[in-house]
Amino acid sequence: MTPLAAVVPGPRVRLFACFLRLGCQQAKPLQLHTGASLAAKNHYEVLVLGGGSGGITMAARMKRKVGAENVAIIEPSERHFYQPIWTLVGAGAKPLASSGHPTASVIPSGVEWIKARVVDLNPDKNCIHTDNDKEISYKYLIIALGIQLDYEKIKGLPEGFAHPKIGSNYSVKTVEKTWKALQDFKEGNAIFTFPNTPVKCAGAPQKIMYLSEAYFRKTGKQSKANIIFNTSLGAIFGVKKYAEALQEIIRERNLTVNYKQNLIEVRADKQEAVFENLDKPGETQVISVSVEVKLSAEQCHRCRRR
Ligand SMILES: Cc1cc2nc3c(=O)[nH]c(=O)nc-3n(C[C@H](O)[C@H](O)[C@H](O)COP(=O)(O)OP(=O)(O)OC[C@H]3O[C@@H](n4cnc5c(N)ncnc54)[C@H](O)[C@@H]3O)c2cc1C
């Protein structure tokens, strides 16, 4: 897994959620980027790897400290995605297009955008290499390459995403499938999972569960839905005060939460999900996403009572 953002060896910095505003703050309309640099320099005071939320935010901050001409961002994608919106995309409240912007429009004005992929870091020589064979050196390096999605760690994925009932809000490729699955849902188990790995957003699995429940309620499907949250964690939230508030919502909405359950396999053809009990390695539980196998849901309720 790649860390979300690291600064080597620069000053202590904080990430700002308002990166778009920061990025455009000092720009007059005609100063905005129209495209990636063709003739980039080969040395920058601050070099930012990745033009996602972290990279753009840090470039805007560093621009104010060292001047725009001394900052560059290396990012291969023409399209920048603001991923927190994907929760709303999965719940049908926003279109996917609303989360994307041309990368050129979010690069802070005056900062160099090098359209390439980083393939190699050489911290001993303060330089990196790109996939178009460029060597670029830096005084300070900011790594904001995001997190790698390892769906293949779950047996049956990613090929299982071809099935209409499986979606994931963590990827631009699969987030719209969540909304489709909610719309197609008629009755039975609706399972939401929190994996046993670092994740982009720890709140995302719960957020989509609550939004799904609200959608089922509005559309009259709630009484036929058995909503299950299988989390690899041992608590619903790390802070007691908020955990208690969430437990209240869980009770009110009749949601089933099973702790220390890690999704290890998806059997898309059989519409089954297999979970391992992290407290008892080797002990598995199979939950059907079809109403026909009610036993699985009952097993789940028993887990909750333990
Ligand atoms: C469904 C969902 C809901 C979320 N909700 C929230 C929320 O409510 N609040 C919140 O604070 N956060 C939320 N997040 C998390 C937030 O989106 C991430 O923390 C944030 O995007 C991380 O920023 P980043 O720059 O580290 O990574 P990213 O935004 O993923 O950007 C990484 C960038 O690196 C680029 N890159 C990758 N490899 C290379 C390479 N080799 N060379 C060059 N560039 C490369 C990629 O193209 C990408 O542009 C949510 C995330 C998701 C998926």
TrEMBL record:
Domain FAD/NAD(P)-binding: 44-161
Short name of any one Pfam family annotated for the protein: Pyr_redox_2
Keywords: FAD, Flavoprotein, Mitochondrion, Oxidoreductase, Quinone, Transit peptide
Primary location class: mitochondrion
InterPro entries the UniProt entry points to: FAD/NAD-bd_sf, FAD/NAD-binding_dom, Sulphide_quinone_reductase
EC numbers on record: 1.8.5.8
Catalytic activity: a quinone + hydrogen sulfide + glutathione + H(+) = S-sulfanylglutathione + a quinol; ubiquinone-10 + hydrogen sulfide + sulfite + 2 H(+) = ubiquinol-10 + thiosulfate; ubiquinone-10 + hydrogen sulfide + glutathione + H(+) = S-sulfanylglutathione + ubiquinol-10
Function comment: Catalyzes the oxidation of hydrogen sulfide with the help of a quinone, such as ubiquinone-10, giving rise to thiosulfate and ultimately to sulfane (molecular sulfur) atoms. Requires an additional electron acceptor; can use sulfite, sulfide or cyanide (in vitro). It is believed the in vivo electron acceptor is glutathione.
Protein name from the UniProt record: Sulfide:quinone oxidoreductase, mitochondrial
Family the entry assigns: Belongs to the SQRD family.
One GO term (biological process): sulfide oxidation, using sulfide:quinone oxidoreductase
A Gene Ontology molecular function term of the record: glutathione-dependent sulfide quinone oxidoreductase activity
Subcellular compartments: Mitochondrion
Organism: Eschrichtius robustus
The protein's required cofactors: FAD
This protein's GO CC annotations: mitochondrion
